[in-house]
Amino acid sequence: MSKSLSLLLVAAVILVAHISAFVTVRQKIGLIQDEVYHYSQIAQFASGNFEFNPGLMTVPGFHFLISEFVKPFGTVSIDLVRSVVFLINLGSIFIFYLIVRKLNEKDALIKTLQFSFFPLIFPFFPLIYTDIVSLIMVLLSFYLMIHKRFFLSAIFSILSIFIRQNNIFWLLFINILMYIRTYGFRLRWNFILVHMKKSWLFVLGVVILAVFFTFSKGVVVSDYAKSYVRISFSLLGNFYFLLFVCFFLFLPLHIANFYSVLKVLSKNKKIWILLVLALVFFLLTFVNDHPFNQATWFLRNYLLVTITGNIFYKIVFFLVAAYSLFSIGNTKLISHEFKLLYPFTFIYLLPYWLIEVRYYFIPIVFFLLFKKNKSAWVELTTIGFYIILSVIFVDGIANWRFFL
């Protein structure tokens, strides 16, 4: 089969699957969860009222953007807003494909299928949520950076901050990658000065956010959101939960990595001592104390409530997360500098008290882009697994059985 025909076939499969999910959601549910706040703010902006909805947790850049698209239609219905958001969200697939084709063309179609059906992200394509539009802005910034369009890259990084303010971490990530891809890991003043001249707009983005923090008296925009800001050891919960979730989402990869993980563990006995110490630290710091993490209608909350209520489950959770960490650490990336993703993921997740799977979209998508593909059975099994999970998740959400 020719490349062009393969591309058309893959595009058709992806489009049919996403349209089917959109139609299913549209027919079965009205506004669900945070869609209530997002739709309300969009409709408000479209009508010319620019007051902020007190229920919002983010800056309203997403809402302003969507309101500009729907404003010409006059009546701002739920179906209209959903349709506009859905069409914009589909653009993330095309941008992902362009990036992976640039980084590693031979894996472009397989990786694009994996992203298109990634089970945590797939159900949000038809919903009025900020997360995929936020992802689009970050991916566009990364795409432009690898094409050395640094000014435009910085523009989209700054725009991403106005969708979700924590994207400041990805602005820094992309800017540092820009330096490393030019100069390697060598820190010299002449290199830094030249880099700063090329990336001054990235620095301006940090200044803009700092000014915003000053005037808003914090990183969130409403008193309602500020009431759920907290600094404690429980902030490590997202890091732990990400590793746990990634064990299942990348199960074929972890199975393929089994012998390499076993080799690392058998060669270095000190790792076992570190694991015991890590288990003690984990048992002390893995708690589920955010009010929004108690409603077990959410699948993530059901797992959290169940696991944190039983010491045996917590130990099993730790072992699964630890294996996931070793396996990911032993997964080859297409370029050495992309290992920068790992510390940035940790830093990015650290400010969150609420444990929420939507926070994992950007780091997981970057991991999909950066990792080297394994054998055909691993990658094809992963796609099949993702399709099954995506169907289950969309059906469960559309029929009000659960939410992610």
Task: Report on the architecture of this protein.
The protein is mainly alpha-helical and 404 residues long. The protein has helices at residues 3-28, 35-46, 61-70, 78-104, 108-116, 131-146, 150-161, 168-183, 189-198, 200-216, 223-226, 237-249, 251-256, 258-267, 270-285, 299-308, 311-329, 341-349, 361-370, 376-398. The two termini are 38 Å apart.
Quick overview:
With 404 residues, the chain is mainly α. It contains 20 helices and no strands.
Architecture blueprint of SSEs:
Blueprint: H1 3-28, H2 35-46, H3 61-70, H4 78-104, H5 108-116, H6 131-146, H7 150-161, H8 168-183, H9 189-198, H10 200-216, H11 223-226, H12 237-249, H13 251-256, H14 258-267, H15 270-285, H16 299-308, H17 311-329, H18 341-349, H19 361-370, H20 376-398
Helix pairs in contact: 1-20, 2-3, 3-4, 4-5, 4-6, 5-20, 6-7, 6-8, 7-8, 7-10, 8-10, 12-17, 15-17
List its traits:
404 residues; single chain; 3 domains; 20 helices; mainly alpha; 68% helix
